[in-house]
Amino acid sequence: MRETKVAIRYAKSLIDLAVEKGKLEETNNDMALIAQVCRENRDLMTMLDSPVISSDKKMAVLKAIFGANISELSLSFMLLMTTKKREYLLDDIAAQFIVQYRNLSGIITAEVTSAVALDENIRSQIRAKIGGDKKIEFVEKIDPSLIGGFIVRVGDKQFDGSIARSIADLKKTFSKNDYIPAF
């Protein structure tokens, strides 16, 4: 993300406007669509980054791509960003909007890496330990090298309950055993 501070400010302004207009959920869905389209279409981002292409042409392209698929509020915001020569930040603004929306809504993203797919019992246990009354969105990854157990990441915190980690800890403990002479 190139200019995160600017993107955060614009996202905050958009989220405040969406709350004021009562269109927070709709705007969040629009920003998710915009972020996905920007992420999947490098040509679109190259066009938005280009100083050679006029703002009018960029607006026409954005209207053609998003016009029928997003709300009037989100489209007006995108066109305003283009008028202000900030269209190259649309992907960053959309990503920051989603982050701020999740914070505002109390949604926690838990990244769970396990050796096998999680069942609902394990998910509910993790949910109880992490959030209590908060909404938790799981991002699940499967890594057979963990042997068993799982690793849970929430924000900047991590819990490693994998068997691979336990084995590594045991090896470390046995290698530091003072009672067995090293040869």
How would you describe this protein?
The protein has 183 residues and is of the alpha+beta class. The protein has helices at residues 4-21, 24-40, 42-49, 55-66, 72-83, 90-105, 120-130, 163-175; strands at 107-114, 135-142, 150-154, 157-160. The protein has a four-stranded mixed beta sheet. Strand 3 (150-154) and strand 4 form a beta hairpin. Helix 1 packs across helix 6 (90-105), helix 2 (24-40) packs across helix 6 and helix 4 runs antiparallel to helix 5 (72-83). The radius of gyration is 23 Å and the shape is elongated. The termini are far apart. 19% of the residues are buried.
Features:
183 residues; alpha+beta; four-stranded mixed β-sheet; 4 strands
The low-confidence runs, each spanning 5 or more residues with pLDDT under 50, are none
Largest sheet: 4 strands, mixed
Judged by helices, strands and strand pairing, the structural class is: alpha+beta
The amount of beta strand, in percent, is 5-15%
